[in-house]
Write a structure and sequence with these properties.
With 410 residues, the chain is an alpha/beta fold. It is built from twelve helices and 21 strands. The chain folds into two domains: 285 residues, Aldolase class I (TIM Barrel, Alpha-Beta Barrel), CATH 3.20.20; 111 residues, no CATH class. It has an eight-stranded mixed β-sheet with strand order 1-2-5-6-7-8-9-14, with helices on both faces. A three-stranded mixed β-sheet has the order 17-20-21, with helices on one face. Strands 3-4 form a two-stranded antiparallel ribbon. A hairpin with a 2-residue loop joins β15 and β16. It is globular. It binds iron/sulfur cluster (SF4).
């Protein structure tokens, strides 16, 4: 059991507006959320007090600082979809004020063009569409957790969320600008999840959705809370979640299970939604690439994600070296090799097309792999890989411009 914080990502989460990059960067001007879902994974670590009803959110930056962080950090690349409110909820007035000021006053697409995926669990409304719909680079995201209120996870009712989305559509919001995450889907809520998908698809409110599984983890001993969730049917048992550190598979430092749905539950959901006129995604990386044309890395956890190969844009080794040096400050003395075969999940080897997967003989993190991968539309592997940055890696991030140091954002 991990009892101290050795994760640079956990440190960033408390101090920086950009705290991680998976397929796209996760950002916030404030940390904290008064909705306080019982399953919120920020409650299982040092930020727990900020994710409770009545919490005072922690301010990280103002609107100008937020723009500087996006503009000047190498972890954010032109054309990115930026998640706004990854550690909070867009319904909190603090976030809205900063975002409106940022988008109307500071954001300059000629310097770095970006799209913004606003995450809000509280119901959206027609008013939101009127205030924000004119900014064409905004996507309205929401997570519906089927029966969350009935099960006592939070006080957000599915019906109210659906009504909010309907209002937005009636006010003129096209379905392509609504991003629904449906989940976590649990064995005893899968029927409700199917109904929600049918209702939203039938009414033409959505054109696509991403369905999610349960995640449980923590920095510290949260056994009592995990057990409470287990009794409510949120999860059954730990499911190994690993990354490849360059030598072997290593368990993730935080997760006991991640985005997990029992097989029979997932099969039922897919069977019952297969005839709907909507596109259904399991992972957001596909959503970003297919629905909004974002360039994404084709790796995850320092492994090729073979099903993402269709999004790759082949590059020569020379091009890769030039971009690494010019845009990421990684000089040509780093050995970069092209990778032409990769292990598959069943342990066999799969061939990799030319120019899409490269191995850098140096240390690296998931944040960096995804920034480089997205910039070039390739996959980048490291011989010494850390899924989360170490505290020492943060010095490198701040020193080399991967992230703007937090003090220069104030
Ligand atoms: S709405 Fe999101 S950020 Fe807020 S408590 Fe729930 S899961 Fe956490």
């Amino acid at each position: 059991m991990m009892t101290n914080i050795r994760s640079g990502e956990a440190i960033l989460a408390m101090i920086h507006p950009i705290y991680k990059r998976r397929y796209v960067p996760s950002t916030d001007p404030f940390v904290g959320c008064r909705i306080g879902c019982r399953f919120c994974y920020y409650r299982w670590g040092p930020m727990a007090d900020l994710f409770q009803p009545g919490a005072t959110l922690r301010k990280l930056v103002d609107a100008e600082g937020y723009w500087k962080a996006l503009r000047d950090s190498r972890l954010v690349v032109p054309g990115d979809i930026v998640i706004f409110c990854a550690r909070s909820d867009f319904s909190m007035p603090e976030n809205r004020l900063v975002f409106m000021r940022f988008i109307s006053t500071y954001y300059d697409p000629s310097t770095k063009p970006l799209k913004f995926l606003l995450l809000q669990r509280a119901p959206w409304s027609a008013r939101d569409w009127k205030a924000l719909g004119g900014y064409e680079n905004i996507i309205f995201g929401t997570t519906i957790t089927p029966e969350a209120a009935q099960k006592g996870f939070n006080r957000i009712w599915d019906d109210a969320q659906i009504r909010g989305l309907r209002e937005m559509r009636e006010a003129g919001c096209p379905p392509e600008r609504i991003s629904l995450e449906l989940g976590p889907i649990l064995p005893d809520t899968v029927e409700a999840a199917i109904e929600i998908a049918h209702a939203l698809a039938r009414e033409g409110i959505i054109k696509f959705l991403t369905y999610r599984g349960a995640s449980v983890g923590g920095y510290g001993d949260y056994r009592a809370e995990w057990e409470n969730l287990r009794q409510k049917g949120f999860w059954r048992e730990e499911v190994s979640y690993t990354y490849f550190d360059g030598k072997g598979d290593v368990p993730h430092e935080y997760y006991r299970l991640k985005n997990h749905i029992p097989r029979e539950t997932e099969e039922l959901f897919l069977k019952e939604t297969s005839g709907l006129p909507i596109r259904i995604y399991r992972h957001t990386g596909h959503l970003y690439a297919r629905e909004w044309g974002a360039s994404v890395a084709i790796t995850r956890n320092n492994r090729l994600r073979a099903e993402m190969l269709p999004y790759a844009r082949p590059r020569t080794l020379q091009e890769v070296n030039e971009v690494l040096e010019r845009e990421f400050g990684i000089t040509a003395d780093v050995n970069v090799e092209e990778v032409r075969e990769a292990p598959s999940r069943d342990g066999s080897t799969i061939p990799v097309p030319p120019g899409v997967l490269f191995r850098l003989h140096r240390p690296g993190t998931e944040d960096v792999a995804h920034a480089i991968g997205a910039r070039m539309g390739i996959g980048v592997l490291f011989t010494e890989f850390r899924n989360q940055p170490s505290p020492a890696d943060l010095d490198w991030y701040f020193g080399e411009g991967w992230l703007v140091p937090p003090e220069s954002l104030r």
